[in-house]
Amino acid sequence: MIMAPEFSRPARLDTLPSVAKPMTVEASAEERAALAARFDLVAIDRLAATLTLQRDGETVTAKGRMEAEVTQSCVATGVPIPAHVAEDFTILFRPEPQDGAPDEEIELSEAECDVVFYEGAMIDIGEAVAETLSLNLDPWPRAPGAEDALRAAGVKSEEEAKRESSPFAGLAALKKK
Fold this sequence. Notes:
The protein is built from five helices and seven strands, in the order ββαβββββαααα. It is an alpha+beta fold.
């Protein structure tokens, strides 16, 4: 069962001009709450984007800026951490490739990483903006005091782990014996 996106702003391809068309999208309170649940956030207080859409044959270019006010949980303490997320983006919408087997891996170059494939005659700007937000969230948000909480729980810093796992640490331990 395919679920509808929480923040859907469909655009019909046959209505998009070949010159840049300005557009603004903003998520409602209900859409932000659903996206917060999907992205495992405490809250999304604002999610909006200003952009232009331009069609060139079957390819549509969305170019603009996404801004959001979110609250994430600290990975160490669970303390809520407010954050401002802002990102300029360029996304190319292209038809789903028809060649190749369904389970075949498709290699994308770095320039193609911001490509969204679509089926049919519509693209979803809202879902593209939501995915842009998701990709720009801090994957390891930490509140002040997080390092102390981690240390108290027995989690070592990266430097401590490197020192203890080095071959010289093993020799030093043998020397003490």
